[in-house]
Amino acid sequence: MQFHQKPNTFVSHVELKVSNIAESIAFYKQIVGFQILEQTENNVRFTTDGKSSILSLKQLEKVEPKQQKTTGLYHFAILLPERKDLANFVFHLAKNKIPVGSSDHLVSEAFYFNDPDGNGIEVYADKDPSTWTWRNNHVVMAVDPIDIEGLLAEGENGAWTLLPTNTVMGHIHLHVAELGETKQFYEEGLGFQTVSQFGNQALFISTGKYHHHIGLNTWNGLGAPPELPFNPGLESYTLSYPNKESLEQVVNNVRQIGAKVEKDNDNYVTYDPSQNKIVLSYDAY
C-alpha cells in the first residue's frame, strides 16, 4: 500500500448519500465486509482496522429518483492487500449471487458491482508495480478479460469473512462535465499528475507514479449537469496530503486558479468544476 501513505496524496475516505441506511448498512457489512466504527440514526462510519474510517454513509432527509447522465460518482474503489484476498472475495460474491463485471487493467485486476442505490463499487488488487509499463510518464492500462481460473486458484472458497485489516480506499472515479478546466483544477490546484488520458473522454491522475488515485470521465455527456442534492450518490471524498504545509500550499494554489475553498475545522472544502465536493485534509502523524 506504498501509494496510499506519505509522501503521496491519495483518497482516504468517501462519503455516500443513501436512500435507506438500514438496507445499505446490511449490504456493506454482509456483502462487502466492512465493520461499523460509529453509528447514529442517520449516519454510519465503516472501518477495516477498527481505528479509522474509509467509507461513511449519510441518510438522505428526503429521496428523489436518481437522475441519469449527471456528474458525480462513477465508482469508488476498495484496494485489497493481496491477490488471494481478491480471489476469496470473488468466491464470496458468487455465493451471494451478486452480479459483477470484471477487467484485467494490466496494472490491477478488478471486479465491479453496485450497492442498493446503484452507487458503483470496484474491489481490486494491484499487480506488482515492477510489472507496470510506463511510456513518456504515462502508464499503460487496458480492459482485458481476467484469468479467472488463475485468480481463483490462489484463493479458498469460503475463506472470506471481512475486509482485511490493511484494506484502503484505492481510488475514486468521477463523472465530470468536461476535461479541460477539470485537468487544470486537479493538476495546478490539487497537485496531481496526469498518468493516462483518452482524448476528451477520460483522464487518470495520481501522485507518486500510482496508476491512478482519481479517474475522471465525460461518459455521461459533455456539459452533464451536477447530481441533484436529494439523489443517492456521492456526498464528498477526502484527499489526504502529507502535512499541514503541503495542504496550505494546495489551498493557495486552488485559490490562485480562481476556485473557491473554505476552512472547515482543521480541513478545507472545495468543489471541482463539475461540483464534486472534496475535503482537503492532512496526515498529522
Automatic annotation (TrEMBL):
<dbReference type="InterPro" id="IPR004360">
    <property type="entry name" value="Glyas_Fos-R_dOase_dom"/>
</dbReference>
<dbReference type="InterPro" id="IPR037523">
    <property type="entry name" value="VOC_core"/>
</dbReference>
<feature type="domain" description="VOC">
    <location>
        <begin position="10"/>
        <end position="126"/>
    </location>
</feature>
<feature type="domain" description="VOC">
    <location>
        <begin position="168"/>
        <end position="285"/>
    </location>
</feature>
<protein>
    <submittedName>
        <fullName>VOC family protein</fullName>
    </submittedName>
</protein>
<dbReference type="Pfam" id="PF00903">
    <property type="entry name" value="Glyoxalase"/>
</dbReference>
<dbReference type="InterPro" id="IPR029068">
    <property type="entry name" value="Glyas_Bleomycin-R_OHBP_Dase"/>
</dbReference>
